[in-house]
Amino acid sequence: MNKQTEIKGKDRYKAGVLKYAQMGYWDGDYQPKDTDLLALFRITPQEGVDAIEAAAAVAGESSTATWTVVWTDRLTAADQYRAKAYKVEPVPGRPGEWFCYVAYDLILFEEGSIANLTASIIGNVFSFKPLKAARLEDMRLPVAYVKTFKGPPTGLVVERERLDKFGRPLLGATTKPKLGLSGKNYGRVVYEGLKGGLDFMKDDENINSQPFMHWRDRFLYVMEAVNKASAETGEVKGSYLNVTAGTMEEMYRRADFAKSLGSVIVMIDLVIGYTAIQSMAEWCRANDMILHLHRAGHGTYTRQKNHGVSFRVIAKWMRLAGVDHIHAGTAVGKLEGDPMTVQGYYNVCRETFNPVDLERGIYFDQDWGDIKKVMPVASGGIHAGQMHQLLDLFGDDVVLQFGGGTIGHPMGIQAGATANRVALEAMVFARNEGRDIKTEGPEILRAAAKWCKPLEAALDVWGDISFNYTSTDTSDYAPTPSASS
Amino acid sequence: MRITQGCFSFLPDLTDEQISSQVDYCLSKNWAIGIEYTDDPHPRNTYWEMWGNPMFDLVDPKGVMMELEACRKQFGDHYIRFNAFDSTRGFETVTMSFIVNRPKVEPKIRMIRQEVDGRSQRYSFETVR
Description:
B: four-stranded antiparallel beta sheet; carbon dioxide fixation (chain B); RuBisCO_ssu_sf (chain B)
């Protein structure tokens, strides 16, 4: 009996154990429907486990299967409820690893629920014994399913309208040190950064309401700083007030207070969970608020190539769940990220249609059905001296966050902020004029530094700092260096 | 006080040649340029006065620069900005905005605090000369 062929008729439902392929979870001839959800897994089967049977097992365990035959399947339209592995191919240059494509019928998923989607797709299968490792690389979400989500509460287009900021990346900085400042000291850093030229300041992921600073104190002082800086510059300014807390009730309480003080933006951490994120998105839609998501914790499952969930998938889920900002990597900073792979994440956030782009890790065409766009955030070990690289890699629709690169400036925080803003505007101006910023970037920065002392000082301190480490999570289709200079 | 709205306010004031180079960039992207002016740079003053409709279908930046000259003649002591409009589906708003003229003496923006409950403040702004 062919182990990879579905068994039909009476023998299919005899009590006992069948191979997953025999149960109907593998169909090499299957043509995915436009309304199917598609998932691409990278799997590493245990020694001696056939790749097709492993793929069928993935399809089975992420849809209807259990380890043995059950007659109750026959009460249902089981053929349609079974996910189908329809393509298996070896991963180029990685012996023992296989790409397996699985199609899921739309009926398997509840409308507008990331929790339900993920309980199926990553619920059981990653612990499955016949696999040594598994990674969810990408998903195609059919428009029919995308349309069941409301998506970002504000979206990057409306965010720009609300902030009255167009034609350049936005600038931010995370208030440092992230732990220990009193509310009053904290607000000082916010004021200096915003007055110096930043658009946003930011709470860090783990600043909530610790013994050294009650959250209400932080919110009060920060909003004094934000408004004062606004008056000093004539610009709309903001500071991401982190409302992450132990319960939804407490998060709503904090968000309501942020609103009552006139904040334009609130912030949450990825670790609050998918349902809490969707609830905060609901709250933001009802309260004209921009929602910033810090991807705290993602590295535990996104970084290793052979096991976990790719960040591009997380980005897709978060666009559906409804966040306005998401940290998506810098490529040139201190944190993991191969440049083309990171560009792939940005495209997921910002495009209305993602075409297949294997070098950037995009395996499926994805039509976003006019759902709003998410503003990606580049944060972590970046500085003014890299402005040309950042603008060249990411374009205008991004928040560039220079935390240490603002607050650690030798002439003070305002000077640090000014250095970044001048570097940014000079680079945008030069690009628009038609200059090749990729090669002429350092020269353009030095020219601006001639009339801008703070920029000169920034380039003198950090100009040579780069983080040249090999990335872990790189494209399987074109080796790209993660060099940063 | 220097108002820093728009995408080039941290650079020295742009020369007409520099302004024209940016207009050229906008036209190459098929963006329409609108000229707007105001004497009130309040951060929430969204609607500056329009100096005519945005200019669609232009190929030469000279057309915009001539309008700027005319606008300056009448409102030389106002703020004047260029807004570039992108009509691409999924965008459809201003895509670039920069100040091309400032009054000789720029106004200040005063922050007004209103005590509300507890230590909370309600903040508002007022343009003062």
